[in-house]
Structure formats: C-alpha cells, structure tokens
Design a protein that fits this description.
The structure holds two protein chains of two kinds. By secondary structure, chain A is of the alpha+beta class. Chain A folds into five domains: 114 residues, PAS domain (Beta-Lactamase, 2-Layer Sandwich), CATH 3.30.450.20; 183 residues, GAF domain (Beta-Lactamase, 2-Layer Sandwich), CATH 3.30.450; 96 residues, 2-Layer Sandwich (Beta-Lactamase), CATH 3.30.450.20; 107 residues; 167 residues, Histidine kinase-like ATPase, C-terminal domain (Heat Shock Protein 90), CATH 3.30.565. Chain A contains 19 helices and 22 strands. The longest helix of chain B has 13 residues. The chains are: A alpha+beta, B alpha/beta.
Chain lengths: 721, 127
C-alpha cells in the first residue's frame, strides 16, 4: 500500500515536472533574449554555448550550435560579419566594447536584428577566460526606426524637390538604403504611347547590375512584369522568389541579376495609377506585410506630391494662359472690392484712357468720375441689377472720358464673387475699347446707307433703262414697220397711176361689152360680171394703197369717240355681219373728248369692226367698249399698251372684241404687216390693219391685237386725251 | 352734129380710155364725144368742138390737167364749160374729203364705171 502511494506520488511529481519543463520551454521559445558563453584557453575559443533562448531568435537549437562550431559565424549577416569580428577582436584585446547591433539570418531565411552585449570574465590574475553575451532581438525596433527614417527621407526629398524627376533618384536610393533593398526602380507611362517606361532606378549592387545604369534610363522600356502586374492590378505585388515566378522574372529588367525577391507598389494620383515603385533584394523574402504597408505609405507620399505637382502645374498653366489671354486680347482688367471700394485697374485699363498707371487712383469712384454723364444711370442700374441677380451676366457698353477729353466707348464685362449669404464681395472683369469698332460701325452704316441709296438709284436707272430699252425696241419695231409701210406706200404711189388707167380701160371696156351681150347668154353675162368684180377689187386695193401712202398731214379736233364709233357701226355694211351676231356696246358715257382726225379714225374703227364681223361668219358676240384710263406711275406693267405713256397721262381706250376663231399665236406679230391677212382669199386686201396702225401712230396712239383667253380676238386702241 | 346731143370732150393721154368712153357715152344716144389724147392740142380742139362738158385727165405728160383747166377757164368761149377731172391720182376718200372738187372743180377717181361717169356728167350738165 505504501508502495502504491509512493508510486502515485512519484507519478504526480513527474507530471508536475513535465508540465514545468513544457512551460519553461514555451517561455524560452517565446523570449527574444538569450545568453551565450564563449570560453577561451590561451586566447583560443574552446567552447561556445548558446542558451535555450537562441532558438527563438535564430531558429537554431543550442544543440545545433553545439554540434557546429562555426554556425554562430554563418548566421551573422554577411555584411555585418566584419563588425562582429571587430567586436570580438576588441574583447580579445582586453577592451570592453559597447553593444553591437547587427543582423542575423534566421534559419527560415528571414533577417533579424539583434543587439549583442558581450561581458568578458577573467581569472584572479586578470586573464581572459571567456565572455558571456546577451543577445536581444531588436528586429521590431530596428524596423520601426528604418520605416520612420524612410518616411522622413522621402518627406524631405519631396519637400526639397521641385519635380518628381528631381526627387526620384534620392527617394529610390534612400528607401533602398534604409530598408535594405538591393535595387529600386520607378516606372510610369509615356503619355503619348501609354507604354510603361522605367523612369529611374538605383542599385546598391556592383556590376554586372551597374552596367544596366549605363544604358539610357529612357531607353525602350522592358515592360516590367512586376511593374506591369502592379500597374494593372492597382495593388501591391510581392514576389518572394523571382526564380519561382518565371513569368515575372523573365520580363523584368533584373533578370540574370541575382535578385531573388521583388515587390511593386502602385503610385496613384487622382484615383489613377500613374507609376510603380519596385524594390528588389538578393535574398528571397516572404511577404512582409509591415514592409508592404510602409512602402505603400511611401508611395502615397509620392502620390500626394504628384497630385500637388499636377495641380500646381495646372494652376501655373492656367495662370500663364490667363496672362497670355489678357496680354493677347489687349483688354484692360479691373478688380473691385465691393466692400471697401478699392479697385485694381491694370495698366492697360488706364492706358486705354490715355493715363499712366499712377495717374488714376485705384478706387471705384475713380471709374465713376470718368463715366459719361449720360451713361451714369444706366451703368449704375446695370451693376445693381446684376448684384440683385436680375441679370445672369454683367455686360455694359459705356463711355469713359479719355485723358484728351474725348470719350471712348468701352465694353465692360465682369463676374461677382459673393459671400455665403449671396452678398457681393468682389467683382472683377475686363474692359474692351469699342471706340474704333463703333466708329467703324458708324462708318459702315453710313457706307451701307450710301450704297443702299446708290443701289436704289441704280435700280431706278436700271428700271428706266429697261423701260427705255423697251420703248426703243418698240420704237425700233415701229420704225421697221414704218419703213416697211413707207416702202410699200412709195411703191403704191408709183404704180397706182399706172395701174389705174389700165383698170379704167378694162372697166370701160367691160361696160361696153356688157351692152353687147346677146340676151340669154347667161355664161357670158356671169363671166363679164366676175371680170368687173375683179377689176373693182384691184381698184380697191389700189385705192387703199394710195390711202396708205397718202400724205400724213391730217387735221384733228376734239371729238366724242362714242359718237364716232356709233357712226362707224352704222356705216358697216349690214351684209357683212352674219345673222345671229349680237352687238354689245359698253360705252362709257363720261368719256372725255379726244383730238382726232375724224375720217381717219373712223376708217380705223370700220376696219376693226369689219375684221371682228368677218371673224364670226357663223355669228357670235361683237363687243365694243370705251373707257377712260389714267396711267399710273408703275409703268402699267399689266398692259404693255400703256408703256409709252407717262404717269398721270389720260387716255381713252377702245376695245373691239369678237368671239370668233382667233389668230394663231405664231402669226400675231405679223398682223400689222402690209398684205398680211388671215381672211379667205378675196375677202381682205391685207392692208386694213396696216392702215389702222399708221393712222393710230399718226395720232400718237397705240393699237394692239391679241387673242382673248376665252376665244376670239380683242383689238384695243388707245388715244391720248 | 346732132344738136340734141350733149357734147363731151374727153382729154386723156391713154387712147383706150378716150375711145371706150366715147363708145360707152355715145351708145347711150345722149352724147357726142370727142376724144383727145394729146393734151397740147386740147385747147384748140375744145375751141372748135365747143363741148358742153370736158372730162380731163390730171396726170398727163406735157401739160398737167390742172394747168389745162386753167387755160380752158381763161378762154372766153370756154370759160363756162364744166370740167370734170378724171384722175388716177385721187382716191375715193379724197373725192369725198374734198367734196368731189380739186381746185374747186369736180373729179372722178379712176377706175370709175360707166354709171358713175354718167351720174357725174348728168349732175354737172344739170340734166
């Protein structure tokens, strides 16, 4: 029983011990400090012992350190080994060197910062027996310092630089140096092509990498796989081992350079990726989120700088543009502080009015004093309306007094700046000198008016010329007609006598022979009758020819055309008027008297009435109309008959109309030609209208023959009252 | 010479006219006609013939009808003899316009037919 109890107790004690050991181990693995000891014998290291905490800091166990005498040396970061060895040397020499901070390479490949504080221990005679060292893992503190330093240096670089191009070399170098990268690059796009270009790079690594630097930075881009990846995704990219990412490695500029780890950080401006910062190291490194965060923060600083730079650039351009526009437009500029009345007038503003810069004080009242008195109310009202929001823009044409006393026309335009309540605070705008434009406008208006007057005069002349041309053409036609008639008349007069005598002989002969015809010989009687008719017709032609060619001297006296027309109608042989012909008289009872040669005009109307009657062999309506007409000033375009008369002239117009077959349009122009007739053979001599026209012409009148729209012919005679 | 018949002298340079007028007028049985074609001989012939009426052409080669009429009117023995011009120069209108008179003398415009000639002669002979 006692034994059982002892076994049980022992079991409990063992468990407790095991638990205690486990706890201790957990504690050791968690602690970042440990102690090591180096023992000498005659200045030679004979043993190195690493405390249990070494595994938490280096990843290696005390046993591994114990079994490999040079492990401690290999874990020291290569670059830092000389410093560590120097520290050891100093201890061996009897010094007490200060703590040394250096890097070690963790078993997992990561780099750790440690603080190494050696404490020598000696024998009673003071001989060095060895030393103990306290190792503290200061990686976190060190990184925090590096990150702070990198932020500081980037901030300083950007603050001291005018442009990103100027800042980039320092930024890349300083970040690379402080954060222990071996190479840093900056990529951005070429705005023209959109291709990614490497704008800048830095490398701590000696050739062959350095050789790359000799090639122009702006040489054809090697569209970096890493940069491209960060650019396209807009997110940071971390590649722990480029050798394991052949797609990226193959495309980067750092291929074959011995670099293993790379990360790309996009740089944004105004929401768009505008560049990529790349960092490389020769050691493979797992993604370090803290580092990534810091780099992203640095990239954000660069982003801010770019945005600011762009804003400044835009502002500068805008200002330059404004300056150019103002200079180019030659406008005067003003800027009025509404609350104080202080007003800036640009030198050009003052120069426009002939003043030097110091000759007009910069106040609103200075402008008011220069205002033309007639424009004052309008100008003030314009400003008030604009301030009150009644007008959406301010534009004012007004006159300002020039130094020489004249007034210049100025176009003012402006915009107002208001406070939160909408009250005007400030108003600024421009002045344009409109004087020359106004004068030019006035000159132009005058010129236009003159041109318009000239044009009107020319049009009038043109109208007159056209009327003259028409009159000349008519006169020419008349002359041609008259010449024709003259020649016919001359011929007629020449032959009439010679023809009449033979006709007389024939007629007398026929008269004689008729008396000798045996009774009952009807054929002979008819034949002789036909011959007599033929001779009489020949005689009548001769007579009409002689009328036609007779002296144009005639005597006129005022007569009532209505009376003359009635007489002419009575003289018309009733046998010539077909049965069923209705005669309509529209005779104006108020017709004024017309100076005419009674017989000649009667002959005209007999001719016209005869023509109308003969045009209706089957009957119809013969209408005779008389009317008084006063010619208006428009040239009476409606009726070419009146063209030759001036405005205000009084005429009596007679229309003789029939409802017969009309005259073919083609022959209308020839109806006044002598011997031209549309009547059947033997019915007309072809001289009636020629004689009528000649008589009307002698009276200074007009005669016109035209077809009526409803059929038949209308003959119109116009005679001056 | 038939004292009942009126004597008519016709002066015209156209022989056919004088001959046919003579034939036509004489055929009426009321007239005796003397035709003269040479106007230079007309005055002498008239003095001899003592016509009751003279039909006188106006346009003749040697003496115009008007001049010959004056000569006739100047002759004491012939001054009362009616003269009717028979002319190819006048038109019927002129005849009517001038009241049938040229220089105060009546006239007939050629071509004129027998009834017109007879009417005119009878009018001026007061038959």
């Amino acid at each position: 029983m006692k034994t059982e109890i002892l076994v049980a107790e022992r079991q409990v004690a063992e468990n407790a011990l095991r638990e205690s050991e486990q706890r201790y181990k957990r504690l050791l693995s968690a602690t970042t400090d440990y102690i090591y000891s180096v023992d000498f014998d005659h200045n030679h290291t004979i043993r190195t012992t690493h405390g249990p905490g070494c595994e938490a800091v280096t990843g290696y166990s005390p046993e591994e350190f114990a079994s490999d005498p040079y492990l401690w040396y290999r874990v020291i970061y290569e670059e830092d080994r000389p410093a560590v060895m120097a520290q050891v040397t100093r201890i061996m020499n009897g010094d007490l060197p200060p703590p040394l901070e250096h890097r070690v390479i963790h078993k997992n490949g990561s780099i750790r910062w440690i603080s190494n504080t050696p404490i020598p221990h000696r024998d009673n005679q003071g001989h060095l027996l060895g030393y103990d060292g306290l190792i503290s893992d200061i990686t976190n503190r060190k990184r925090a310092e590096q990150f702070l330093a990198s932020q500081y240096t980037v901030t300083r670089c950007l603050a001291e630089a005018q442009t990103l191009e100027e800042a980039l070399p320092r930024i890349l170098r300083d970040i690379g140096t402080i954060l222990f990268w071996d190479r840093a690059e900056y990529w951005s796009t070429d705005s023209a092509s959109g291709d990614l270009h490497r704008k800048e790079f830095w490398s701590r690594i000696p050739p062959p990498l350095q050789e790359i630097r000799s090639s122009p930075v702006s040489s054809k881009p090697v569209a970096g796989g890493l940069a491209r990846s960060a650019w396209d995704s807009g997110e940071p990219v971390w590649v722990p081992d480029l050798d394991l990412a052949p797609n990226i490695r193959g495309e980067t500029a750092v291929s074959n350079s011995g670099l293993r780890c790379g990360c790309g950080i996009p740089v944004r401006a105004l929401g768009k990726v505008v560049g990529v910062m790349e960092f490389f190291s020769r050691e493979t490194q797992q993604c370090d989120s803290h580092m990534l965060q810091v780099l992203t923060g640095l990239a954000a600083q660069v982003s801010l700088f770019i945005e600011q730079e762009r804003a400044e650039q835009a502002l500068r351009r805008s200002q330059e543009r404004l300056a150019l526009v103002i200079e180019g437009s030659n406008d005067g500029i003003w800027d009025w502080d509404v609350t104080t009345g202080q007003t800036y007038f640009s030198p050009r503003w003052k120069g426009m009015l002939g003043y030097d810069d110091d000759e007009i004080e910069n106040t609103f009242s200075a402008w008011e004093q220069l205002l033309h008195p007639e424009d004052r109310d309008r100008a003030v009202a314009g400003i008030r309306a604009y301030f009150a929001g009644k007008t959406t823009s301010f534009e004012l044409e007004h006159r300002l007094r020039h130094k020489d006393g004249t007034y210049r026309w100025i176009l003012a335009r402006g915009v107002v700046l208001r406070d939160a309540e909408g009250n005007p605070l400030r108003m600024a705008g421009s002045h344009v000198d409109l004087t020359e434009r106004k004068l030019a406008g006035e000159r132009l208006e005058k010129t236009c008016a003159k041109l318009a007057a000239r044009e009107a005069a020319l049009k009038k002349i043109l109208r007159q010329l056209r009327a003259s041309h028409r009159a000349l053409k008519e006169a020419q036609l008349h002359l041609i007609q008259a010449a024709k008639l003259e020649s016919v008349g001359t011929l007629a007069a020449g032959v009439a006598h010679e023809v009449k005598n033979p006709l007389q002989t024939i007629l007398m002969g026929l008269d004689y022979v008729c008396q000798k015809v045996p009774a009952g010989d009807q054929d002979l009687t008819d034949t002789l009758g036909d011959m007599r008719d033929a001779v009489k017709r020949a005689g009548s032609i001769i007579r009409e020819l002689l009328v036609f060619s007779s002296d144009s001297v005639f005597q006129t006296r005022p007569e009532d055309l209505n009376v003359l027309i009635e007489r002419s109608m009575r003289l018309l042989n009733p046998s010539l008027i077909a049965a069923g012909t209705e005669i309509v008289r529209n005779l104006d009872p108020q017709l004024p008297l017309v100076p005419i040669d009674h017989n000649k005009i009667q002959q005209v109307f007999i001719n016209l009435l005869l023509n109308a009657a003969q045009a209706m062999p089957a009957g119809g309506t013969l209408t005779v109309t008389t009317r008084a007409v006063r010619v208006d000033g428009t040239g009476s375009a409606a009726n070419p008959l009146f063209h030759k008369y001036g405005a205000g002239e009084s005429l009596v117009v007679v229309d003789v109309e029939d409802t017969g077959h009309g005259i073919p349009e083609a022959v209308l122009p020839r109806v006044f030609d002598p011997f031209f007739t549309t009547k059947p053979l033997g019915v007309g001599t072809g001289l009636g209208l020629s004689i009528a026209r000649k008589i009307v012409d002698l009276h200074g009148g007009e005669i016109q023959i035209r077809n009526r729209p409803t059929g038949g012919v209308a003959a119109t005679v116009a005679l001056k009252v | 010479m038939d004292s009942h018949k009126k004597r008519i002298m016709v002066v015209d340079d156209e022989p056919s006219i004088t001959r046919l007028l003579k034939l036509n007028l004489e055929q009426t049985g009321r007239y005796e006609v003397c035709g003269i074609n040479n106007e230079t001989m007309a005055l002498a012939a008239a003095r001899e013939f003592q016509p009751d009426l003279i039909l006188l052409d106006v346009a003749m080669p040697h003496i115009p009808g008007g001049d010959l009429a004056n000569q006739i009117k100047a002759s004491p023995r012939l001054k009362n003899t009616p003269i009717v011009f028979l002319t190819a120069l006048a038109t019927p209108n002129e005849v009517s316009e001038h009241g049938g008179l040229i220089g105060g003398l009546p006239f007939l415009a050629k071509p004129v037919d027998l009834p017109e000639v007879l009417g005119c002669i009878e009018k001026h002979l007061g038959v």
